[in-house]
C-alpha cells in the first residue's frame, strides 16, 4: 500500500499513501494502511509527498489524510486525481499543492527534490531527500523507457549528478526479470499491427492509468479508419483529467457509447476497463451480454493489453471463456506478449541506475520476498550494501552505523466498510470466549492447475500468543492448500477459515485473536523454485 515515513530530529514526512483490494474477502473490499502504530509512537507526518497517481500510491489519501491534516504535494495529474477523490469524500482540496518534476522544497530538516522518471503513468517521480549529512533516493515506481510516448525519457545526466547516494529505497517488483522491461513505443507499434489484422468490432482492455497505452490505442485506431469509444468510469475519469492537462491533445474525437450501435462494427475500437476480470467492469458486462449499448458478435476481437495481476488469473480465465463462447478472437499476453510492457525495471535497468547514482546502501522495497532477495543479489554484485529485506511495520534506522531494523510492529489490516475505515475482525469463531493475544498471519499463495500452493515465506507473528510450532503449522497449511478446491481467493479464505480455527484450537492453550490475510503472488521461474520455498 506504499506508505513510507521518514523521520529526522523528531520531524516526520510521509511518501505515498495507497490502498489495495482484498481479493480474499467477500466483495473484495479496500484495505488501507493501519495508522495505530503511528499514533502509539506519536508520529504525525508534517507533509505527504506523492510520487505518482496510481491507486496503490494515492488510493488511501482521502481516508487517512484527515488524521494528519498536513500539506499534500503532488504533480499535476496525481493532484487532479486526488481532487476528484476529495470531492467524493466532501473534503476540501486546499491542502493539495501542485509541484512540477524538478521542483525542490524544504520542510524542517528535510530538503526534497522531485526527479522525473518513466513509468506506466505520466509524471512519475523519484524523490531525492537530504536530512543532515544523509542523502536518500526514494525511487518510487520507475523504468528506463527510451520511447515512453507521453513525457520524456529519464535524464541520465541528472541522475549521474546525484552520485554518490547514501541510501536508495528501491523498487524490487521486476528484479528477478533478466534484461529490459520493454518500451511503450514498441507496444504502440504492436497494437497498430494487430488492429490492422482485425475484422469486426475491436475491444482493447488496459489499465486506465496507462495513458501512453490509451493514446497508442487511439492513434492506432485512427490510422486504421476506426472511431474510438471509452467504456468504464475509471477510464473516462482518467482521460478527462489527462485531457485537461494537455496529455491527450492528439487523441481522436470520442464516440459516446450510446452511439456505437449506429456504426458498422469494422469502424469501431472500444477502450474498456476490466482486464483483470473485475465483476462490475465494462469488459465483464460485454462478456455477459449485459451492456446496454453493445453486443459482441462472432468475428469481433478482444485485445488484453495488460498483464494478469497475481490472484486474478482465475477470474480472467473465466472472463476469457465467456468471451470465447461468444465467438470473439482473443489476443492476450500468452499468445501476443508484445501487446504489453511492464512499468517496473528489470535487472539491466536496475544495474544501469545504480551505476549512475552509485549508492552505498540499498533498501529493497515493493514486490514480494523473492523480488527483494533478487534485488539484494543485484546489489551485492555491484558492491552495494543491502543488509535488509523489510516487511510492513518495520522501524528502520539509518546512521553512521549502517542500516538496521530497530523494531517490528505488526500491522493488523484495516478495511473500508460502509465509507469508514475499520479494523478487520480477523476470524470469528462464533463464540464469545475471551481471546488471549493476537496472531498475525499473511499467507502468500499462487493459483496452480490443480488448486493453490504457498509461495515464499509464511509471514507469521505469534509472539503474543501461547507457543506455536511454526514448522508443523506451515506443513499443515500446505496440506490444506492442496486439498481445498476454490475458484477465487475469497472462496479459498472461506474454506480455510474453519479449518484454521479448528487447528489452532487443538494446538494452542489459549485461542488468540487471529488476523489472516491471503495474498496472491506470482509463480517464480523454474530456476528460482529451489530457493523460494
TrEMBL record:
Known CDD domains for this protein?
Answer: RNaseJ_MBL-fold
Q: Which UniProt keywords apply?
A: Exonuclease, Hydrolase, Metal-binding, Nuclease, RNA-binding, Zinc
Q: Where is the Metallo-beta-lactamase domain?
A: 1-180
Q: Name one GO molecular function term.
A: RNA binding
Matches recorded under InterPro entries: Metallo-B-lactamas (IPR001279), RibonucZ/Hydroxyglut_hydro (IPR036866), RMMBL (IPR011108), RNase_J_2 (IPR042173), RNase_J_b_CASP (IPR055132)
Under the heading Pfam families, the entry gives: Lactamase_B, RMMBL, RNase_J_b_CASP
What name has this protein been given in UniProt? Ribonuclease J
Taxonomic placement: Bacteria, Pseudomonadati, Pseudomonadota, Gammaproteobacteria, Oceanospirillales
Amino acid at each position: 500500500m506504499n506508505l513510507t515515513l521518514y523521520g529526522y530530529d523528531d520531524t516526520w514526512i510521509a511518501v505515498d499513501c495507497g490502498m489495495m483490494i482484498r481479493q480474499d474477502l467477500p466483495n473484495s473490499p479496500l484495505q488501507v494502511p493501519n495508522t495505530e502504530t503511528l499514533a502509539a509512537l506519536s508520529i504525525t507526518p508534517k507533509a505527504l509527498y506523492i510520487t505518482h497517481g496510481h491507486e496503490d500510491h494515492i488510493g488511501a489519501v482521502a481516508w487517512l489524510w484527515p488524521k494528519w491534516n498536513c500539506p499534500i504535494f503532488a504533480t499535476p495529474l496525481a493532484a487532479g486525481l486526488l481532487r476528484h477523490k476529495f470531492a467524493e469524500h466532501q473534503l476540501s482540496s486546499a491542502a493539495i499543492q501542485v509541484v512540477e518534476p524538478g521542483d525542490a522544497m524544504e520542510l524542517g530538516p528535510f530538503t526534497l527534490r522531485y526527479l522525473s522518471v518513466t513509468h506506466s503513468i505520466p509524471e512519475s517521480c523519484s524523490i531525492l531527500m537530504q536530512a543532515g549529512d544523509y542523502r536518500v533516493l526514494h525511487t518510487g515506481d520507475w523504468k528506463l523507457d527510451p520511447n515512453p510516448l507521453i513525457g520524456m525519457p529519464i535524464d541520465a545526466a541528472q541522475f549521474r549528478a546525484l552520485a554518490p547516494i547514501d541510501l536508495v529505497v528501491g523498487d524490487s517488483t521486476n528484479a528477478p526479470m533478466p534484461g529490459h522491461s520493454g518500451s511503450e513505443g514498441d507496444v504502440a507499434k504492436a497494437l497498430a499491427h494487430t488492429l490492422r489484422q482485425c475484422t469486426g468490432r475491436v475491444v482493447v482492455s488496459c489499465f486506465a492509468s496507462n495513458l501512453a497505452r490509451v493514446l497508442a490505442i487511439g492513434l492506432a485506431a485512427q490510422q486504421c479508419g476506426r472511431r474510438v469509444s471509452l467504456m468504464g468510469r475509471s477510464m473516462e475519469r482518467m482521460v478527462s483529467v489527462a485531457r485537461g492537462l494537455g496529455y491527450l491533445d492528439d487523441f481522436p474525437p470520442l464516440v459516446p457509447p450510446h452511439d456505437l450501435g449506429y456504426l458498422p462494427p469494422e469502424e469501431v475500437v472500444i477502450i474498456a476497463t476490466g482486464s483483470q476480470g473485475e465483476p462490475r467492469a465494462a469488459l465483464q458486462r460485454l462478456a455477459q451480454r449485459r451492456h446496454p449499448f453493445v453486443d459482441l458478435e462472432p468475428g469481433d476481437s478482444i485485445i488484453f493489453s495488460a498483464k494478469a495481476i497475481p490472484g486474478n488469473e482465475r477470474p480472467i480465465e473465466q472472463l476469457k471463456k465467456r468471451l470465447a463462447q461468444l465467438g470473439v478472437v482473443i489476443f492476450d499476453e500468452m499468445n501476443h506478449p508484445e501487446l504489453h510492457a511492464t512499468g517496473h525495471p528489470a535487472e539491466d535497468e536496475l544495474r544501469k541506475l545504480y551505476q549512475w547514482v552509485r549508492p552505498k546502501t540499498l533498501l529493497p522495497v515493493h514486490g514480494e520476498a523473492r523480488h527483494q532477495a533478487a534485488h539484494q543479489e543485484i546489489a551485492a554484485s555491484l558492491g552495494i550494501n543491502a543488509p535488509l529485506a523489510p516487511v510492513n511495520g518495520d522501524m528502520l534506522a539509518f546512521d553512521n552505523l549502517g542500516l538496521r531494523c530497530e523494531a517490528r510492529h505488526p500491522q493488523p489490516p484495516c478495511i473500508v466498510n460502509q465509507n469508514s475505515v475499520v479494523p478487520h475482525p480477523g476470524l470469528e469463531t462464533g463464540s464469545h470466549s475471551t481471546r488471549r493475544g493476537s496472531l498475525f498471519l499473511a499467507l502468500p499463495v499462487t493459483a496452480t492447475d490443480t488448486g493453490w500452493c504457498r509461495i515464499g515465506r509464511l509471514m507469521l507473528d505469534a509472539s503474543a500468543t501461547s507457543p506455536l510450532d511454526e514448522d508443523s503449522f506451515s506443513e499443515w497449511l500446505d496440506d490444506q492448500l492442496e486439498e481445498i478446491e476454490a475458484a477465487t481467493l475469497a472462496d479459498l479464505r472461506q474454506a480455510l477459515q474453519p479449518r484454521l480455527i479448528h487447528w489452532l484450537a487443538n494446538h494452542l492453550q489459549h485461542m488468540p485473536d487471529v488476523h489472516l490475510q491471503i495474498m496472491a503472488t506470482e509463480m517464480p521461474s523454474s530456476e528460482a523454485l529451489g530457493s523460494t520455498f
